[in-house]
Design a protein that fits this description.
Layout lengths: L8 E10 L9 E10 L2 E9 L8 E7 L5 E8 L4 E8 L2 E8 L2 E7 L5 E2 L1 H10 L1 H5 L4 E7 L4 E13 L4 E8 L2 H6 L3 E6 L5 E8 L9 E9 L2
Parallel strand pairs: 9-10
Antiparallel strand pairs: 1-2, 1-15, 2-3, 3-4, 4-5, 5-6, 6-7, 7-8, 10-11, 11-12, 12-13, 13-14, 14-15
Amino acid sequence: MVGPSPGATRVYEGQVRPRGKPSAPPIFRYERWEHNAGEARVSTHVTFAPTDAVPVLVHEATHDDAFGLMGLRAWDRTRGVTGKMTMTAEGAVFERTRRGRTRTRLERNRTPLVFGPTLIGWARAHWRELASGSPLIVHFAVVEDLRSYRFELRMTEQNTTAATTTVTLRATGPLTRVMVRPMRMVFDSSTREITGYHGRVPPRRPGGGALDADVTYSHTR
């Protein structure tokens, strides 16, 4: 698993910079690719270091038209981890391989599940509910941890001057709230295309450690 499937279409590219440093050079860039797989859709995020043609991280999600997560695969050079998750009648089955050891875990009754490649699409698919002011609960899948974490998704700002709408993802658990600051997705209010993201990103920072970043997007489709 080193990139998108043949026949996939590139949707956008994101430039990832350290949080609060808009003039800094990107430390990562990532591409979003999409293709159909029978009645399902597949969305893939491929992340590169600035000067590296080989991906450092690939996240692939299989989902329905409303971005309901059906399964995922992950390949992460920054953590030395590969993994996957499959939805079954009993719940989400996570599998992780690290340093040659494979572990699995079943997680029950944690829906709706989202993952990096489905988060933005899931917010767009539930725009009307978010616009009503009601918070929506999602569970963010983390393959490395063999589990998901509960978050609240809420539309928090509509900037009429910039014609943007912000949707914020905030952890609900007390420990997770300490470790992960609220993440903000900024959309064009008219097209609902993503224009900016501010918060935790999947790749580790150079030298190790969790990375909070600002991401700007250029759309190719």
